[in-house]
Amino acid sequence: MAPAYAVALITGASSGIGFEMARLLAGQGTKVALVARRKVLIDGLAGEIRSAGGTAIPIPCDVRERIPMHAAVAETSRELGPIDLLIANAGVGHVIPADTFDAALFEDTIRTNLLGPVYAVEAALPSMLSRRAGHIVGVSSLAAYRGFPMTHAYCASKSALNAFLEGLRAEISDHGIRVTTVCPGFVRTPMTVKNTGAMPFLLEADEAARRILRAVRAGRRVYNFPWPMAALMTLVRLLPGGVLDRAVRSARSFE
Which end of the chain has less neighbouring CB within 10 Å, N or C? Predict the structure, then answer.
């Protein structure tokens, strides 16, 4: 049976959800391009996939930089073929307390979590439009739906990503291209391991990856999960601002 996607490019493939999605897709026969800054880690993953009979190429790249991201897309198309599935997954989650507010960290968050996907889409979209085929997936967060203390940069970047994908979806959905916005709750990854607060309904990265790929294959427009956390966030969004502020004032992070 042919794989659902022939060629996939995954950013943030060196660890966490991106790592696990790459393994799963490769196991299904998809040729995968592994894009991340940490060369040693993506080299190791590519070797593991090849040893299991799959096809993978590691592409060291900083998604915050436009030209290298374009080069990564070009290399993928040259080595593996046209990209059917683009998964913009790379992300960071800086904690920025108000009393030590650091705009440089805020900028880094925006460049990684928002401009990284934008650069990837800019590079991959022309080919998808010409072929009238392709699937763009942006890994956002349930934190996109409300600002939280000290992770306001993270929340802002993911909220902007949601708006970008929503507008893009409305514009290109009749061109044969799907756009899926994925909003996980807490997932055990190197980014969340530093959290000191409670992480309700925490998922392991491999389980999150499986759920995401099921939603992608089903053509979901937006996938919020796990459902108890998504339901909780829906309630949070309905709270008056003052009530919410008091409820979360002592929170230390939401990533």
Answer: N
